[in-house]
Amino acid sequence: MQPLALLGLVAITRIKRISMSRTIVRPFTLLILLGSFARPAASQETEAPPAWTDNAELSFVLTAGNSESSSFGVRNRLARSFESSSLMFDVGGIRVESGTIRRSAVGTSQSDFTVSEETDRQTTAENYFASLRYDRQVSDRTYVYTSGGWVRNRFAGVENRLTGAAGFGIKLVETDQGSFAVDLGLTVSREEPLIGESVSFGGLRFGWGYTRQVTATTAFASTLVVDENLSDTDDLRADFDNSVAVSISDVLALKTGLKILYDKQPSLESIGLFDAPGGTLLGSVLTPLDKVDTQLTVSLVVSL
For the stretch 205-228, what's the b/e string if a residue is b when 16 or more beta carbons lie within 10 angstroms of its beta carbon? Predict the structure, then answer.
């Protein structure tokens, strides 16, 4: 083979190799570039915010026959947790009615008569409340909060009580099995009693929240709220709420709760003044109500 022909063959071979190399490298370069753009797009996808959670409680007891009574209780907790904050709306109430049956006979003799019945219904217990609370996490263990609440408990002598609070708290325990947190804050309240004039005052609030997963299906919860009236330190109130919930399914649970309400300076009620038992009514006097109220409830809880 001639030298010029040999050189031409070598040149053509090199050109083919370079061309094939570029043909192979270009697709891989394109894939790498696409991958570099695809990865940031995937990392930029943000997770959807957590859904609202809702727990509804319902309890109802009805008796009929020789005596009549009915008890109805409802409570609903609507909450949402964000990345570093949470919001909860809690509303509920209890109403208890009892009836006294009065029977009488109308006729001409003991064998010829008809019996008529009349039921005198009365509300014997009534308590309603609503509250809204917002918590903001400051660090892994500390948080600040603000809240507002309304209470009506006529049998405790309270027509309306409005309270606003703001403060800070510390999470002392935070595990998968339970939690325990305490908080301290300042309050502003306005109370309208059934008897007497409305009052407004500032106060100090201490509280705790404790939860414990006792077993896989049983959970215990306890909350305490203590309010001190700074204008009158004898006016001290406490709300101690405890419950045990047993899961029936992923949605349903059976809950037993015990709430203790304490008022060191309870409201007043007006009662009749007699000169003797069963004697002549002379007028009326004001006397304080009981300091402690207790509520025992058994309810069905629906969690959504």
Answer: bebebbebeeeeeebebbebbbbb
